[in-house]
Amino acid sequence: MTVDRPTIDAAIAAVTAAADLTTSAQGRLLAGDTLTKTDDSPVTVADFGAQAVVCAVLTDSLGEIEMVGEEDANDLVDDRSGLLDGVAGLVSSTLARDVSPATLLDWIAVGSGSASADRYWTLDPIDGTKGFLRGDQYAIALALIEHGEVVLGVLGCPNYPLTSGARGATFVAAHGETHLLAAGERTQVNVVPPASLDVARFCESVESGHSDQGQSAQIAEQLGMTAEPYRIDSQCKYGAIALSDANVYLRLPTRADYVEKIWDHAAGKLVVENAGGRVTDVHGAPLDFARGARLSANSGVIATSGRFHDEVVAAVGNVLS
Fold this sequence. Notes:
Number of strands: 12
Number of helices: 10
Distance between the termini: 37 Å
Shape: globular
Radius of gyration: 19 Å
């Protein structure tokens, strides 16, 4: 499916604005500024603020949209902690205009759309909360889904370390291609598969609660992979696979009843696939985005640079069984 240029440009602008907001919030957090009265609020301020900014930019550019976002405006309606004022201040600073609490709530509420619509956006305003709090890696993940297929993905990774020495990358996946926007340049991204599995590198979550790292080690042993894993927060892992900084990303189920959410994978999945890699669940089935806000037909995620994907799926099956 094709996506018109104004839609792509609006998505890039929305993620870029959200990256400006989250970078500012993260810097203030690391400087000891909690942004609001509550000690645990900085990441919440940035989450709500990033969702508001993305929805504001998209609706300003495209008109009314359907959006499935992670944050719920109702969580701010009865705020008594000053959180709403903190979000409004951060958004006003980012957009360089005064934003009233009512307008802010309206923008955040755009994200309460239906995942059953024929065409809708999905957003994780800050994917990788703990990385964000550490001053490390996180992502702004925005995707457009049409008839159950992800047709556009924009993945903003403000702190991603590039081989050039620069930091910060935005991945744009559309029309069968992935492009990297970094340091003022735009380049097409194509995965470079390793020559063999013994020189391949795993990519996995920093937080052990997000994937079973013990099982990952068993799978690596089965495949003959000996390199230290590349541990990085958030959907930045998909960027790492696309850039060939790593070759295999495993998100293994930590609970039998856990179901992945669409906003945690939609943008990253398209970034990898359009760069020439493969993404499936742990059984080798494609990720199914036609079932609402959760990937209820799938279990876990495997993303690879493509060449040895089937071997990885087989090894995962051996270990999980």
